[in-house]
Amino acid sequence: NAGVTQTPKFRILKIGQSMTLQCTQDMNHNYMYWYRQDPGMGLKLIYYSVGAGITDKGEVPNGYNVSRSTTEDFPLRLELAAPSQTSVYFCASTLGSIMGEQYFGPGTRLTVT
Amino acid sequence: GENVEQHPSTLSVQEGDSAVIKCTYSDSASNYFPWYKQELGKRPQLIIDIRSNVGEKKDQRIAVTLNKTAKHFSLHITETQPEDSAVYFCAAGDGNTGFQKLVFGTGTRLLVSP
């Protein structure tokens, strides 16, 4: 299994541009999450999904959108990028509702200038 | 909602010493407390977790203790080695949602000097 994969690894955006961060998992996990990690800070939850077609906001959803059309994929869309969105973005997944390990992707480092 | 505080923010120890990282949480409904290790430039990885029906759990050199009454939990690393150097994050499972949603602490940078 490849686990959780993310693309791209790095990206530089200009203010006002848009992009989609891709996340795919091959573990047949129901739950998927998007986090952002600012320098010296912990992980903040942006959006999460409990299954295909079901998404909900986390702690810091403003400026982002998500969709979940399949179990495997959970893309994160940035519209009208702002410097405040400069961060490292991690996608994660876990099997089910019982608390257990979240498996993280390798991250996407995004800079907005 | 849940709030997790983590201390210290940085911790420097000599190889062979013990290291202790402490976290407090606010929501008494939280019932799952994992610890993640993140090496520089890498993804977070689970190293140990504990559930609210257990007071202590050990795995070789690492252990976690939980005090539900005081709403705090701690990570203990014994006989530290240079490869333990990393950022460690605690988290609390938000028990109000009925499914797994974690709130993370701000992290502790551990530096183990040879």
Short description:
The complex is a heterodimer of chains A (about 110) and B (about 110). Chain A has about 110 residues and is mainly β.
Describe this structure in words.
The complex is a heterodimer of chains A (about 110) and B (about 110). Chain A is mainly beta. In chain A, about 0% of the residues lie in helices and about 50% in strands. Chain A is built from no helices and 11 strands. In chain A, strands 2, 4, 5, 6, 9, 10 and 11 form a 7-stranded mixed sheet that branches. Chain A has a 4-stranded antiparallel sheet with strand order 1-3-8-7, with no helix packed on it. Chain A starts with a strand and ends with a strand. The relative contact order of chain A is 0.34. With about 110 residues, chain B is mainly beta. In chain B, strands 2, 4, 5, 9, 10 and 11 form a 6-stranded mixed sheet that branches. Chain B has a 5-stranded antiparallel sheet with strand order 1-3-8-7-6, with no helix packed on it. Classes of the chains: A mainly beta (about 110), B mainly beta (about 110). At the A-B interface, strand 5 of A face strand 5 and strand 10 of B.
* Secondary structure tally: strands of chain A: 11
Low-confidence stretches of chain A: none
Given as residue ranges, the uncertain stretches of chain B (5+ residues, pLDDT < 50) are: none
Share of residues in helices of chain B: under 10%
Q: Residue share in helices of chain A?
A: under 10%
What's the count of strands of chain B?
11
**Rg of chain B, Cα atoms, Å:** 14 Å
Give the CA-based shape of chain B: globular
The biggest beta sheet of chain A reads:
7 strands, mixed
Name the beta content range of chain B.
Answer: over 45%
Largest interface: A-B, 23 and 25 residues
Strand content of chain A: over 45%
The best one-word shape of chain A is globular
Structural class of chain A: mainly beta
CA gyration radius of chain A, whole angstroms: 13 Å
What is the number of helical segments of chain B per DSSP (H or I, 4+ residues)? 0
Count of helical segments of chain A?
Answer: 0
